Amino acid sequence: MAVSRRRLTAVAAVALAALTTGLTTGCDAVNKALDCAQTADSIADSVTGLQQAVESAANDPAQADASLDSIEKNLGKIGDKTDNADVNKAVDDVNKAVDNVRTAIKNGDKSPDVGPVTDAAGELTKVCTK
Length: 130
Known about the structure:
Elements: H1 2-25, H2 27-55, H3 61-81, H4 85-106, H5 115-128
Helix pairs in contact: 1-2, 2-3, 2-5, 3-4, 4-5
């Protein structure tokens, strides 16, 4: 339940920031901010899925792979829509954390540390709300 509240708070903050930004910079900036926020929200969902998949990795290792693929796909959406250096750095950080988890799983780690993915995704959400 706490993850949902935090996500709702982040989305509300992004919406408010986007509306405020829109008053001064136009519709294009609002659309980019909303796209970033929506995709960051999708990534948050994927990170939650990844955490659950890692917990049951012994039973279904493919589930963790699917969650990692989903995160990477959503990261690509953000990267394609922005030229903001902070957003691009945050995307790179999430990608690196995802790669580390994927490598750990391939090397036989049945419970890799997904904390860095969660932290990097949280930072991406913050950057999208600026």
